[in-house]
Backbone:
């Protein structure tokens, strides 16, 4: 029983990280229809920013969050103005090509700059755990989980309660109508992509506390984000929370009770089933209709 | 609205952009130039510089570079009273076996290199050595050891390392001597050729010594979160954890062990802790970890080019500001014996096919001794007389702790629990 609870807990904590890592992907896809294949590289950049601030200035990883947020916001904004903007109205394949190009450039520039070394954000509290009636909770994962929840909640509130957020949602729902209503959609696009990059970078900073950092770490996160977003509903931001949880819990329980090998296969099997039977995600709120 | 939606115009604008990306990418992949002068030995290799083994592969590249610099500083390889400099041509195989094979074929057919050195990682080297075998280029390799390399009936593949399952022999043979003597072990390993073989090796030797294996599991490389896997093993309470690993897996296992608060009495890795990143990234959390090795600088070996094993270590440290790993020592030893072959056979560059065909029987016939230790190749190409060494991280240093007759320190056992550190 203890093993089950521990495994479930591991899954939930992992799920929170997955959710945080996928929210930006969902946002860019939902609003702009851009499948950002360089998504994972934004995570990598976020992780490296935290790592370097820690190494060079001794700043606590959690204090680096605003820096990551800003840096990635501007990177996202810049990439959007420079390139993504030009894709408006062109077929989806163009966005795959472009963002895959981003992925190659970012990953290889990072490799040039920082080499393929495996790095680890090490603080006085990394790896420390709380023992809660026999359940082991690693501090950094709990903190990451809480921040991930705040991140998604904040994004949700921003999208539903603010003027700009509503404009973003309106653009996602019907671009032309939004334009007719006076929404400056290219501004909205730039803002959305920048925002997506910023929260993805933030997630990267959080990830750096738990995962090993290296320039090639991005792509698996893009794949994870894709799974999470399909499970939760493509373009439906709160859905990433559920998608992340399901993925984390399934992975964890399958590793504990079956084998680690099967847990990944199971994840993709789940993805396949969702795509075939419920392409709109668990709650059917994704923009892809069943 | 300033930005109209001119679909055609925008699509066109993407093309030059993509071209720029492509150019950037090609530029990034270009290998640095090798220096050259008249009639050099041109030697090629493909190693992972990016991908899962990018870091491990870079070590092998450094090793060959170090050998080249040492030889060129002496004026080159002396054959028939003339000194020929060495020129290295290498490519990044991106940790992909097919790419490694393709690049070795390119080195042989397009770059027309004189000799081929081995890369890093069993999967890559399996693919690459199939090509060198086809073109009858002897390949000396110091960084691959899966069993599959040796059961193919190849004649031109020479491994400075022992076979993977045998490499971890020391890690199991040390167990009965530890106090308290471990009764049970759990074995996990990444399911790729070398680390899976190492896991099998752990199992076979444990069974031979009557140590109970209470858990055995291979997991995919794609697994990034090890906490649930380790939680499961923690429940079974093994005395010792044996891990078939490369450096990334080893780092992840150590992070995971701490996060699930699991301290076995001992943790052993087939590979990883000897790669500098392991100590750099884990710091104090790397203490007490054991690992298999095939070479340490305190061993009593020597040769005329590098001096003693300790001399090699010191010069290497001076050049790269870090200690050489055993695969680097093994890779340099591989380069040394190919050098010895061309010298003793009197083969000046450019080498012809029949020249290389002479090197092969030469390598089988001799026993070599250099700073790396004794080398003799079995008919399957494996180094059959190399000792299985165990090292342990003690106060941030790698200490040779087994076999006892050459050890420089005693193993510290059991490992201190995370909470008490």
Residues:
């Amino acid at each position: 029983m203890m093993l089950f609870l521990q495994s479930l807990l591991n899954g939930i904590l992992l799920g929170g990280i997955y959710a945080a890592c996928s929210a930006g992907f969902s946002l860019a896809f939902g609003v702009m229809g851009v499948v950002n294949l360089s998504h994972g590289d934004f995570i990598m950049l976020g992780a490296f920013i935290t790592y370097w601030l820690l190494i060079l200035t001794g700043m606590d990883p959690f204090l680096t969050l605003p820096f990551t947020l800003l840096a990635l916001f501007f990177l996202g904004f810049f990439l959007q103005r420079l390139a993504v903007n030009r894709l408006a109205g062109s077929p989806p394949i163009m966005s795959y090509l472009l963002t895959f190009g981003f992925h190659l450039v970012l990953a290889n520039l990072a490799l040039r700059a920082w080499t393929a070394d495996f790095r680890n954000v090490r603080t006085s509290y990394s790896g420390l755990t709380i023992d809660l009636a026999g359940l082991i909770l690693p501090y950094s994962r709990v903190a990451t989980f809480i921040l991930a929840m705040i991140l998604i909640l904040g994004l949700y509130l921003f999208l539903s309660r603010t003027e700009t957020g509503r404009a973003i949602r309106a653009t996602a729902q019907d671009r032309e109508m939004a334009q007719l209503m006076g929404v400056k959609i290219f501004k909205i696009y730039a803002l959305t992509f920048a925002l997506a990059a910023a929260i993805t970078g933030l997630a990267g900073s959080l990830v750096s506390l738990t995962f090993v950092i290296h320039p090639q770490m991005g792509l698996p996160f893009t794949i994870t984000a894709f799974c999470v977003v399909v499970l939760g509903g493509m373009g439906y931001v709160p859905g990433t929370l559920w998608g992340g949880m399901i993925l984390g819990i399934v992975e964890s329980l399958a590793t504990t009770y079956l084998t680690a090998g099967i847990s990944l296969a199971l994840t993709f099997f789940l993805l396949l089933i969702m795509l075939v039977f419920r392409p709109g995600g668990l709650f059917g709120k994704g923009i892809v209709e069943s | 609205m300033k930005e109209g939606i001119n679909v055609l115009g925008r699509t066109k604008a993407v093309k030059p952009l993509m071209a720029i990306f492509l150019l950037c990418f090609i530029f990034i992949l270009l290998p640095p130039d090798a220096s050259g002068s008249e009639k050099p030995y041109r030697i090629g290799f493909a190693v992972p510089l990016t991908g899962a083994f990018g870091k491990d592969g870079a070590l092998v590249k450094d090793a060959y570079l170090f050998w080249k610099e040492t030889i060129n500083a002496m004026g080159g390889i002396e054959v028939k009273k003339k000194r020929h400099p060495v020129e290295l041509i290498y490519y990044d195989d991106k940790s992909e076996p097919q790419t490694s094979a393709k690049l070795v074929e390119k080195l042989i057919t397009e770059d027309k290199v004189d000799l081929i050195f081995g890369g890093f990682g069993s999967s890559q080297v399996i693919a690459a050595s199939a090509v060198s075998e086809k073109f009858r280029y002897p390949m000396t390799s110091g960084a691959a050891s899966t069993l599959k390399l040796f059961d193919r009936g190849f004649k031109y593949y020479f491994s400075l390392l022992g076979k993977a399952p045998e490499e971890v022999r020391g890690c199991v043979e040390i167990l009965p001597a530890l106090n308290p003597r471990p009764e049970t072990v759990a074995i996990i390993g990444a399911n790729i050729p070398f680390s899976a073989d190492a896991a099998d090796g752990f199992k076979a030797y444990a069974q031979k010594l009557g140590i109970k294996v209470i858990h055995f599991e291979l997991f995919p490389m794609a697994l990034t979160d090890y906490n649930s896997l380790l939680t499961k093993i923690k429940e079974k309470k093994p005395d010792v954890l044996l891990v078939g690993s490369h450096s990334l897996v080893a780092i992840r296992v150590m992070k995971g062990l701490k996060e699930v608060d699991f301290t076995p009495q001992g943790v052993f890795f087939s590979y990883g802790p000897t790669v500098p990143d392991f100590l750099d990234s884990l710091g104090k959390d790397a203490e007490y970890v054991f690992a298999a090795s095939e070479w340490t600088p305190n061993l009593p070996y020597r040769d005329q080019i590098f001096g003693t094993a300790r001399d090699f270590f010191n010069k290497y440290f001076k050049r790269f500001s870090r200690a050489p790993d055993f695969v680097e020592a093994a890779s340099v030893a591989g380069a040394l014996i190919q050098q010895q072959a061309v010298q003793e056979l009197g083969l000046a560059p450019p080498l012809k096919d029949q020249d290389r065909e002479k090197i092969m029987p030469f390598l089988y016939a001799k026993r070599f001794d250099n700073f790396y230790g004794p080398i003799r190749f079995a008919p399957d190409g494996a180094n059959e007389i190399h000792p299985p060494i165990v090292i342990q991280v003690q106060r941030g240093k790698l200490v040779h702790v087994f076999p006892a007759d050459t050890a420089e320190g005693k193993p510290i056992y059991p490992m201190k629990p995370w909470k008490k550190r």
